[in-house]
Amino acid sequence: DHQSSDATWDILQKLRAEGLPLTLHRLYRVELAHREVMNRLTREAITEHGAELVLPFDADEFLVNDENNLSCRQVLETLDPENLYCLRWRVYEPLLPDQDRDRFLLSRSCKRKQDFHGAQKTIVGADGYQNGRPYELVQGAHFGKYLDDGSSVPMIVVPFLHTAHFHWRSSDQYETKIATSWLNNVSKYTVHTVTASYLKGGFDSLMNHESAARESIMEHAAEKFNL
User: Fold this and answer.
1) Where are the beta strands (DSSP E) in the chain?
2) β-strand 135-138 against 61-65: which pairing, if any?
3) How far apart are CA 168 and CA 135, in angstroms?
4) Helices (H), the chain
5) What digits encode the pLDDT tens for the residues 72-120?
């Protein structure tokens, strides 16, 4: 929990008290620190909780299989913990974003891009991460880089599964993301940073006292879908 103001911390504590196996941390750093946090949590999941696989997901991402009747867990159990895996990434949005906002996101009608995103998410095999050639997750946990020479870690594409990324936010949330994410991108730029042109364009709009919000992050080529 990164200093949220919407009762997230209290809700998570109550869910843990009800029996959900949650491990909770609070982050008080000013910057996003996504890379540092994800790598720390990945190590913790492996060394303290005995994880064989780690899925470094954000709160707006969900694991989906819409290609056959296998459960996500059944597919994950076929993966070798020696490897780093590439998980396809697809952008989703609520079909009616301002309606039924109190309902669980995945139970609402949505739309999604017809094609997969050019980027991806990762699934980390514990044995390779802990005992192999040292590497870390970088740039939103989209890929891995070896610590010794900065080269990319080879990845194997996961069959059937993909990440459903609900990159939708209210106008206020979106503009807050634009402002903080672009400054974070600039302050922590490395050779691994992927240029986020939409962040820079939105930030320039805010600096000119113009709205940076947009109704949809999708092109018109989207399809309705019911998860």
Assistant:
1) 53-54, 61-65, 84-94, 110-113, 120-125, 135-138, 143-146, 156-166, 222-225
2) unpaired
3) 31
4) 8-17, 34-49, 72-76, 126-131, 171-187, 197-207
5) 999 999 999 999 999 999 989 888 877 887 888 888 888 898 888 878 8
Give the pairing of strands 84-94 and 156-166. parallel
Question: Which structure tokens are listed for 29?
Answer: 């750093």
Cβ-contact 55, 123 below 8 angstroms: yes
- Return the SS3 of 166: strand
Q: Which residues of 104-131 are buried (b: 16+ CB within 10 A; e: fewer)?
A: ebeebebbbbeeebeebbbbbbbebbee
| Rounded-to-integer distance, Cα 59 and Cα 156, Å | 24
Could you give the CA distance from residue 61 to residue 58 in angstroms, rounded to a whole number?
6
Q: What's the pLDDT tens digit per position in 166-219?
A: 876 667 777 887 888 788 777 766 665 555 667 788 889 999 998 876 655 565
Cα distance between residue 97 and residue 195, in whole Å:
28
What gap in Å lies between CA 202 and CA 192, rounded to an integer? 22
Calculate the CA dihedral of residues 110, 114, 115, 121 and round it to 10 degrees: 10
Asked if residue 19 lies in contact with residue 25, where contact means CB atoms within 8 angstroms, the answer is: no
Record the tokens describing residue 79, joined without a space: 């993966």
Structure tokens at 153: 């870690």
